[in-house]
Predict the 3D structure of the following.
Amino acid sequence: MNIYLDHVATNPLHPEVLEAMMPYFREHYGNPLSLYEPGMKAREAIETARAATASLINAKPKEIVFTASGAESNNFAVKGIAYANQNKGKHVIVSKIEHHSVLNTARFLEKQGFAVTYLPVDKYGTVNPADIEKAITKETILISVIHASPEIGTIQPIEEIGRIARQKGVIFHTDAVASVGNIPVDVQSLNADLVSFTAHQFYGPKGAAALYVKEGVRIVPLVYGGIQEGGRRAGTENVPAIVGMGRAAELAKRDLKKRVDHVRALRDKIIDCALKIDKALLTGHPEKRLPGHASFVVEYIEGEAMLLLLAAKGIYSASGSACSSKALKASPVLISIGIPAHVAQGSVVFTLGETITEDDITYFTEIFPAVISRLREISPYAKGWEGTEGPTCTAQK
Amino acid sequence: MNIYLDHVATNPLHPEVLEAMMPYFREHYGNPLSLYEPGMKAREAIETARAATASLINAKPKEIVFTASGAESNNFAVKGIAYANQNKGKHVIVSKIEHHSVLNTARFLEKQGFAVTYLPVDKYGTVNPADIEKAITKETILISVIHASPEIGTIQPIEEIGRIARQKGVIFHTDAVASVGNIPVDVQSLNADLVSFTAHQFYGPKGAAALYVKEGVRIVPLVYGGIQEGGRRAGTENVPAIVGMGRAAELAKRDLKKRVDHVRALRDKIIDCALKIDKALLTGHPEKRLPGHASFVVEYIEGEAMLLLLAAKGIYSASGSACSSKALKASPVLISIGIPAHVAQGSVVFTLGETITEDDITYFTEIFPAVISRLREISPYAKGWEGTEGPTCTAQK
C-alpha cells in the first residue's frame, strides 16, 4: 500500500490536464509569436489558458504573467517591485516565515542596498497586522507576506494586511503557492497587488506558474528579452505546460468545494490520531490552516528517520517544505514559532489530495503510532523520553 | 502542402523525446527533493538527463544548471556574473547583435550602475576579436557574444574571443541557443565560461534549457529559493521537460552530422533560388553560418506581407527572430550590418529541420519567386522598383 501524503511538495498530474496538453506536444508546436497558423494556434491556446487561470483567482486575463515556477514568481514579484520603485524608497517588509524564494531574494536585495524588515510571528505562525503597520516607513515600497505556509499550514490575515498596505500606499505581494487551487483565493478580497501561484499545486504540470500583477502596477522583468507576456517575462512560452495550467485552473474552480471538504475530513482524522501520541504537537494554527494540511513535531524523534520508516511502510510525507527537506537544518519556520531546535528535528508534515481515501487514512492511523513507538525504542533521541507505552490510534477508535 | 521553415523559432518535439517524457507525467510525479521512492525516481531521471545534456557540449554534469528558457539562461548568465563580480569592476562587453535577452539585460545593468560597451559588427555580422581586446579595461568583468545569430545565421569566432577573454582574465559567456544541437559545440574548444542553450532548438520540449557554468565560476542566482540545482536555480524542477531535454541531447549527439549534412544541402538550394531574384541579398556570412539557416532581405518588399503570402501557400517562415516578429521595428541586427532601414523591412528567414524533404524545397523554389513577383506588382513599396520580369527559380533548374 502506497499513500502519497506530500501534496504540498507536488501533486500528480490530473489525467484531464495531461489530455489537454497532448495536442500541444504533438501538433501545435509553433512559436506563439509567429504569424502563421501553427503559431497562432499556440497563441490562442495561451490566451484561453490565461483567461482560465485568471478566473480561478478572480483576476483579469491581462493581470496574469505566466512564469515557470512559484519560486520564479516570488523572485519576479519581490525584485521586480523593488527595482521599479527604488527611486521612491528602498525598504521592504517580509515575514520571518516566508518561503526561501522570498527570504533569499530579500537577502539579495539587502546586498544591493535595500533595507529589509523581517516580521516575527506568533506561536501559530501568524503575522500580526499591527506589526506591519508599525514597520511601514516613508521608504517602504513593498510588503510580502505568504498566504499559507507549506510547512505549518497557517493561513495569514492577508485581507487585513492588504487593507493596511492600501491605506498606506505600499505595494503588497502574497506568495499563495500553497493556497491557490486548494482554498478559495480572490485577489480582490485579498487586497493584494501581486499574487504568486503554481500549477502543480492543483494537479497541473510542473513548469507552469503565474504572477498576478494588478492592473496599473509597474514591475521590472526578472527575465528580459522578447515581447512575450506583454514584455514582462521573456522566453519562448512553454505552451503545453501553460495549457495544462489553464485546464487545471478550470478543474480547481469547478471542484474546489468538493476538494476542500474531502481533504479536511481526512486531515482531521490524521490530527486526531497524531494528537493521541504522547509529546506530539500540532504546529501551525488549529483552525486557520490549509484544509489538507496536518503538521506536527514529535518529541524525541529524529524527523528523517521518521520519514524513512514511514516511507518503508508506503506512507510518503515530508519533514517540512520540499525545499528544505534535504537541507538538514532545523526549519527556520518552526524556530520562528518558538519550537526548540531539538524538538523541531521531529517535524513531520502530512498533506492530502483528492485521491486519498478513507482506507488510506485507516492504514495511516495504524502505521503512524507504531512508527513513533519503534523509533522511540531504538533512537538515541528518545533517551530522555519516559512517556506512555506505545501509542495507538486505531485502538481508541 | 505545409512546409515549416521556421526551425530557429522552435521545433516539433521528436516522438522519442515525448515518449521518454511520458512516464514523468503519468507515474513519477514526486518532487525530486523528497526522500521517498517517487521523488528519488524523479531525482535520478534529472541526473541522467543532466549527464546527457552535459555530454552534448562536452561539459561535466555538475556544470549544467537547468533553466526554463534560453532567455532565462542569458539573464542568469549576464546578471549572475555581474552581481557576483561587481566588487571587482562594473564593466560589461556585449556585441550589438546579441539576442534581446542579453541586450535588454545589459540595459538593465546600466540602470544599476554598470557600464556596457556594445561592440559593432562587420557587414556579415561578425565581431572582430581585436575590438574585444581593445574594449577590455581593468573594470571589465564579463564579455558576452552570441555564438550564432538566429536572424542572420552568422557564426562568431567564439574560440578566438574566448582565448582573448582567458588571457585577460575576463569571464566569457556565449549565447549558443541557436547553435547547440544544430552544429557541434564543445565548450572546451570554445574557451567559454558560460554557455546558454535550449532544448526546443534540437527537438526537445519547450520549458527546458540550460546554462553551462564552468567549474569554479561563481554565479549569483537569478531565481533564489530552495536548494535545487546546487542552490544556483530554485524552483520545483520541471521533471518531464528536463527528461525530454536529456533525451533530445542524446539524439542530437547521435544524429548531429546527419542533421547538419541534410539541412545544409537543402539550405543551399534555397539560397541558390533566392539569389536569382533581383535585389535579393543574402544576410549574414556566406560560409560561416548555421547550416540550416538562409536569411535574406528582398528590396521593395514589405516583410510581413511576404510572410503572410508565403503562409497562405503553406510556407511558414519568419522576418527575423521570433521575439521581434511582432515588434514591427526594423531589426537592430540588420541595421548593425549596414542594411538600410527601408530594405530591412523586406527581411525573411528560412530555417530548416530534419524532416524537411527535397520535395518541400522544390515546392519552395516554385512558390517563393512567385510570391515576390506578386508582392512587387501590388505593393506600394515596389513603386521605385524597375527590376526584371517576374523572377523564377524553377525555370533555370
Chain B touches chain A through 72 residues (CB under 8 Å). The radius of gyration of chain B is 22 Å. Residues 80 and 219 of chain B are 5 Å apart (CA to CA).
